[in-house]
Give the backbone structure.
Amino acid sequence: MQLFSSLVAAITSRSSSGPGTGGLEWTPCDVADRAAVQKLFAEATAKLGGLDVLVNNAGIAGPTSKVEEMNPENWDRCLDICLTGQFNCTRLAVPLLRKSKNASIVNISSAAGRLGFAMRTPYAAAKWGVIGFTKSLSIELGPDNIRVNAILPGLVAGDRQRRVLEAKAQQRGISYAEMERTAFSYTSIKDYVTPEQIADQILFICSPRGRTISGQAISICGDTQMLG
C-alpha cells in the first residue's frame, strides 16, 4: 500500500513542530479483518489516550480485467478493503471522536469515485461507495460536531500508480509510455499528484480552520475529466 506509506511520511513531515515530534508509530492491519481492526484501535487508544482524526486511507488497486473474466474473489477482496474497511474503522472511531473538540474523518476515495473506469469495476464501485458513505456520515455525525469529508486523488506519483498503468497497458497490448500519455490526455494539468499535496489538504480540513468543511468530495486530480 504505497500511497499509505507516502501519506504517513508526508503528514509526518508537515505536522512536525520540533525534534522528536515527527515520529509516528504505526501497526500493520488488514482493515478487512474486524478482529485485527479491533486490536488496532485498542492499541491506538491505549497509546494516544483518545482520537481527534481518522483518515481511512487503506486500499488496494484491485484487478484489471473485463467483468466477465474477473475472479469473484478479487472483486470481493477489493470491496472488502476499499469500502468495508472504512466502515470497520469508522464504527470504532466514532465513539472516540465524540469526545474530541476538533473531530474529523477523512475518507480517501479517488477520481474513480466520480468517473467510470473500464476494466477497474470493483475499484470504481468501491470508491463511488466511499462518496455515499462520506456524505451520509456527514449528515449523521454533524450533530456531534464530527466533520466527514472525502479526498479524490487523480494520478498519484509512485509505484502503485505505475503498476496500475502497467496492468492497463498489458490489457490493451500497448506500451507503458503510450498508456501514460493516454491517461494524461484526459487531464488539464499534465503532471502527477504528489502524496504531499494530499497530505496538505488533509491537514487543512482537519485543522480548526476547516471546522465548517463537511460532506465534501474534494478532488486533487489535475482536473481529470475521464479515466482511460
